[in-house]
Amino acid sequence: MRTEAQSASETRERAALAPRPHRVVQRVRETRSSVTLILAPVEAEEALPPGRPGQFNMVWAPGVGEVPISFSAIDDSGLQIHTIRAVGPVSRKLCAVRPGDVVGLRGPFGSTWPVDAARGRDLIIVGCGIGLAPVRPVIHSVLADRDAFGDVSLIVGARKADDLLFREELDGWWQRREIRVRTIVDQPSDDWRGNIGVVTKELQRIDFDPDRTQVIACGPEIMMKFVAEHLIDRGLNPGDIAVSMERNMQCAIGQCGHCQLRGYFICTDGPVFAWPRIQPLMEVREL
Ligand SMILES: Cc1cc2nc3c(=O)[nH]c(=O)nc-3n(C[C@H](O)[C@H](O)[C@H](O)COP(=O)(O)OP(=O)(O)OC[C@H]3O[C@@H](n4cnc5c(N)ncnc54)[C@H](O)[C@@H]3O)c2cc1C
Ligand code: FES
Question: Were 90 and a residue from 65, 133, 198, 245 both cysteine, which residue would form a disulfide, CB within 3.0 to 4.6 Å?
């Protein structure tokens, strides 16, 4: 006979596996290949809890499939906000939805960026390509309580200027000088007046105190590896570097093994990890 606790846990598991219908209330084109979707529950009582910076929802495109997508902003009133780049069948379908269309959501899942650990300290945030979306809620948290943090630098990398997300918001942050914003692109267009190269080049220009700096980095794994190695060479404690890992996912609740990376399930142990936990896995070939 099942105990009450077992039944309650099964109910929670079923709920975690059942997508809840959400209507697209706004679709903002960010770049040629990415959009931000603002989604509201079709039934108010089906609203999901708000996520926290670094966490993700499983987003279901009916008839096509379901993929993990981080929160690109956090809303406490039941709206779910995601920025998605079209790379394959599911993400392409999600980028093509229109206001009024319905998608399924379940979540929030996963670990969070160490925003609280950064309070009272300096913070370097690195976001490359679509990797700027998962770190954006950290920037919002900092700006909502600016005095709680020391110096804050944001380094944004992209292949081309046209691939930069949240252009207006970046300009606003840069103009208000509440945080230091540096953008760098690999392949400049003729009218690009900013920096050219990779994010580690921009990092070299930043002075930081290794004893009071927290780093948050999101983007291609090779970029996160170079960022971590560069900062550690300059004296930063590896435990003060947090990165977010990506793997294909199915259940998102640690049951199917789809996202397993050696001893970790990225969906429940991650996606945000302190660098010392993930560094040994960066040597694994399939990474
Ligand atoms: C925790 C987590 C958070 C994520 N957050 C976001 C997010 O906020 N926004 C977002 O757009 N994506 C995010 N992703 C990535 C997203 O889940 C994948 O892009 C998506 O699963 C691709 O599914 P698909 O069916 O569209 O394409 P697939 O058929 O799975 O892939 C199509 C092709 O694209 C390649 N590909 C797949 N994913 C990526 C990728 N991320 N970058 C480059 N090439 C890729 C594949 O190797 C394949 O060649 C996140 C992933 C994880 C694990
Ligand atoms: S997605 Fe199933 S265990 Fe992580």
Answer: 65
The predicted pLDDT at position 8 comes to 60
Domain ranges of the chain: 16-109, 115-283
- 256 CB near ligand 2 (under 6 Å): yes
pLDDT in tens, 6-19: 666 665 666 678 89
The token duo for 3 is 């105990």
Q: Which atom of ligand 2 is nearest to the CA of 250?
A: 1
C-alpha distances out from residue 118 to 114, 123, 186, Å: 7, 6, 29
Domain 16-109 homologous superfamily, CATH = Translation factors (2.40.30.10)
- Write out pLDDT tens, residues 103-160: 999 999 999 999 999 999 999 999 999 999 999 999 999 999 999 999 999 999 999 9
Query: Which helix (DSSP H) or strand (DSSP E) does residue 243 occupy?
Result: strand 241-244
Instruction: With beta carbons less than 8 A apart as the criterion, state whether 21 and 104 touch.
Output: yes
87: CA distance to ligand 1 center in Å?
Answer: 6
Topology alike, domains 16-109 and 115-283: no
Give the closest residue to 266 by CA, choosing from 118, 85, 58.
58
Predicted local confidence at residue 66, as pLDDT: 97
- Both tokens assigned to 72: 């690109």
What length is written for the chain?
Answer: 287
CA distance 51 to 57: 8
Q: How far is the CA of 42 from the centre of ligand 1 (A)?
A: 26
Q: Name residue, tokens 């993700």.
A: 56
Q: Which ligand is nearest to the CA of 30?
A: 1
pTM, full prediction:
0.93
Task: Domain 115-283: give its CATH code.
Answer: 3.40.50.80
